[in-house]
Amino acid sequence: MTGTPVWVLESAMFEDRHRALRDAAAAEGHRAIEWDDRWWRDGRAPTIDGPAIFHGSLGNAARVRHELPWEPGAYCDVDAFRCSAWFPRARPWSLQRTWVETSVRALTAAPAVVLAPLPASDEVFVRPDSPLKPFGGRVVRRSRLSPAALDHGYYYDDLDLPIVVAPVRKVSREWRFVVVDRRVVAGSGYDGPSRRAVASQAQDAVWEFAAEVARQLEPPEPVYVMDVGEADGALHVVELNPFSGADLYACDRTSIVRAVAAHLSGAR
User: In terms of Cα–Cα distance, which of 218, 106, 95, 206 is closest to 163?
Assistant: First the structure.
């Protein structure tokens, strides 16, 4: 793909975090423009001659990928990032080795039947199958499973919403890595609740684990985000997420910009 890359940044989503991405893009001779939600209403999204890469909210990333003529537009292939799509491929490294694919309706109507394949436990972890996360993943007591406990009626109305249910695992530490063409190009440790982050070093064991997984795992997209967690003293893949809707935390923006540009130009 030829031309100067243009980064389309929904900075309202990530506040000051986009400043570093904008600066890195400028330093590499790329352009950066600000996303405007009014483009959906008036149908006047700008014509971009050359590669365009959106980064912002998941909802807008998905729409950009499917509704705008930009190339690549957004790295947010919703179907490829469904848990049901990538869980089986990631099983050798995954935090979850067993899980049940079901729906909110089926789980809450007959939890004993749906959860029979899982180890006996008072609690289960429930999350949407979709990477767009119509509700946040959570631990729920089996005795309290209900549509309301899974935010039905607040963020979604469809009781047939696909979900994944798995045993509860305690994650003591977490990291986020950006993968481009099966190569880890940037990493960050982070604390989910506080959103605090610290850069991850390329020489450490966590980076090496992520790099090995990235080399072997069939990727959902050429550019994506991999979350790694430590549980019971071992490292595991916790989640794969679309790059265009993911917080980059303390990941090195220059490394990301350069790697994405190399991918778009066909260089490896």
Answer: 106
